[in-house]
Amino acid sequence: MDNLFDIFNSRSNSTEINIEEEPSNSKCFCLPFTGADFQVKFLKSMFEYFKCLTVKRYNTVKNEWVIINKSFNIKFINGWLVSIAGLLRLFQNLQKEHPRDLVLYTNRTNQDCLENFELQLC
To answer: Does pLDDT of 92 surpass 80?
Structure first.
């Protein structure tokens, strides 16, 4: 989950960004999103994880754990599915217009930044 939060909160880096392979350090997902293989592979694996996630609740009457059907209707799961698919699609669409050297600083796409941006436009 730490890596998922990092990939959605990437910021500019003082060093030049050139990601061909997964960097060796543990905070490689803090780097801006460039569509590198390791970034896309990670996002797709997290998408599958959330799609297959089983959520249970404890039923005190039966004294057992019960699986909640349709766990994709749980807001945080659906939110992550939408966010992951949205980032992949946004990058894909922008890459059509800018085929080389596209870099996304995902911290600029979070709700607070968008709300502040909208306020500045008014």
So the answer is: yes
